[in-house]
Design a protein that fits this description.
With about 110 residues, the protein is an alpha+beta fold. It has 2 helices and 4 strands; from the N terminus they run ααββββ.
Length: about 110
């Protein structure tokens, strides 16, 4: 994703709109050859349910987000686990500077 951002004046790709079965799509990254279709969209906790760019195990949160300063904008959330991952007990979040934090989900 950071390669896309670098190539597009700091903007993350605009997502395909959400639907009841899709919480935002990573498809623009596939269409422009930044990521290959495959296991990158599958959460390791759900290996028996393969995902695709349009039916990912992660919610894409950065549609159209612009990163002007990678240091000060690092805390912007880019993607996170959908509730079905990790039996809804754990949530990982990917941030704009490419680090990932995990936390127990509130029940």
């Amino acid at each position: 994703m950071l390669m896309y951002v670098d190539d597009n004046d700091g903007y993350f790709p605009a997502s395909v709109p959400s639907t009841p079965t899709n919480s935002g799509s990573f498809a623009p990254l596939i269409g422009e050859n930044y990521i290959a279709e495959g296991k990158i969209f599958t959460c390791p906790s759900r290996q028996n349910t393969p995902a695709t760019s349009s039916q990912s195990h992660y919610s894409y949160l950065a549609s159209g987000l612009r990163i002007e300063n990678p240091v000060t904008d690092a805390g912007n959330s880019v993607a996170r686990d959908i509730p079905r991952n990790h039996d809804a007990r754990w949530k990982n979040t990917l941030y704009a500077d490419a680090h990932v934090d995990g936390e127990a989900s509130a029940r």
